[in-house]
């Protein structure tokens, strides 16, 4: 019975993401010929470790886009929470666990504030999160004076550099756990049903008695929490809190979602697609690095990928609309 259920879930996942999986396999085949290093165990683990930070953010971004919103503040919250947490330990001499809890709490509170403003003032999430992006970035620079803070506390740095059984990096372990949690959250709970309903038709959701404000607040609060967690893991990996990190992270998260089939018009998308999208982006970056392509050109490639993915999503949406009208 369990094997049948697992086979059914796996089959559904493969069928729903056949396009992005095909792209992923094609990339792996091409890069395996262009670089002998690509398929080595060390490089694969390196790719997964690099991808993990984007996945943390993309999980929350998936929820935001499905409900018809977006969050541009994730990268700045990453920088702010990483900078504050390291500063609390090094400058303010707080115990490590208290500093980590405070860092996560602060990011979560900023997410909560975003959700409250979006839900109760009915302002566009794009504008609210853009404002939060500047506020959180400012907080990071004000607290640190614009300087990075070095940390050598092994208890803290092991959060980002440690390995499970000496093989699997902790950031990858966190990523797997979070993916499982969000798959269950979105597909097996009432909250997930409400998220899809809200993104599919806001007015119908309201008339059905779905607590729209509560769902929006919860989604943006979760994004704040995930961004804070990503910031702490990243600062532990870098052995420092840097107010300048996080720039462009929101675009990577959005690109992962769109590549994975999350519709920018809301109501459509899944966690597995987003994860595959993030892996594709990570493999592209890794492959370009192995080929010695400039980081400046990598920005161009990422921008083109986002543009093409959005165009495909838009055309697909128009096709669905045409079918509905013709019926």
Automatic annotation (TrEMBL):
It comes from the Bacteria. It is a multi-pass membrane protein. Its main location: membrane. GO terms for cellular component: plasma membrane. It is found in: Cell membrane. It holds the Pfam family BPD_transp_2. GO terms for molecular function: transmembrane transporter activity. Signal peptide: none annotated. Keywords: Cell membrane, Membrane, Transmembrane, Transmembrane helix. CDD domains: TM_PBP1_transp_AraH_like (cd06579). InterPro entries: ABC_transp_permease. Coiled coil: none annotated. The chain crosses the membrane at residues 20-39, 59-90, 97-119, 125-143, 164-186, 217-239, 251-284, 296-314. This is Ribose transport system permease protein.
């Amino acid at each position: 019975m369990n094997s049948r259920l697992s086979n059914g879930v796996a089959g559904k996942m493969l069928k729903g993401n056949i396009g992005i999986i095909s792209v992923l396999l094609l990339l792996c085949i091409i890069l395996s010929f262009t670089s002998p290093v690509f398929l080595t165990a060390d490089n694969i683990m390196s790719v997964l470790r690099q991808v993990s930070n984007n996945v943390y953010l993309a999980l929350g971004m998936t929820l935001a886009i499905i409900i018809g919103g977006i969050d541009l503040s994730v990268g700045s919250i990453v920088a702010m929470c990483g900078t504050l947490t390291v500063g609390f330990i090094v400058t303010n001499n707080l115990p490590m666990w208290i500093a980590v809890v405070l860092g996560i709490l602060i990011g979560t509170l900023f997410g909560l504030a975003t959700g409250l403003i979006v839900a109760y003032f009915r302002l566009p999430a794009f504008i609210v999160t853009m404002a939060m992006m500047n506020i959180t970035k400012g907080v990071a620079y004000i607290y640190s004076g614009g300087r990075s803070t070095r940390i050598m506390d092994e208890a803290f740095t092991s959060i980002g550099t440690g390995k499970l059984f000496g093989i699997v990096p902790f950031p990858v372990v966190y990523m797997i756990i979070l993916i499982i949690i969000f798959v269950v959250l979105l597909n097996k709970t009432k909250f997930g049903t409400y998220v899809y309903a809200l993104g599919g038709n806001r007015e119908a959701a309201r008339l059905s008695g779905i607590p729209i404000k509560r769902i929006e607040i919860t989604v943006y609060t979760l994004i704040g929490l995930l961004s804070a967690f990503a910031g702490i893991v990243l600062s532990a990996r870098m052995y420092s809190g840097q107010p300048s990190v996080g720039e462009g992270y929101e675009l990577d998260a959005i690109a992962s979602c769109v590549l994975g089939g999350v519709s920018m018009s809301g109501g459509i998308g899944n966690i597995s697609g987003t994860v595959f999208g993030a892996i594709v982006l990570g493999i592209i970056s890794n492959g370009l690095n192995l080929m010695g392509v400039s980081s400046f050109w990598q920005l161009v490639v990422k921008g083109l990928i986002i543009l093409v993915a959005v165009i495909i999503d838009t055309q697909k949406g128009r096709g669905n609309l045409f079918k509905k009208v013709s019926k």
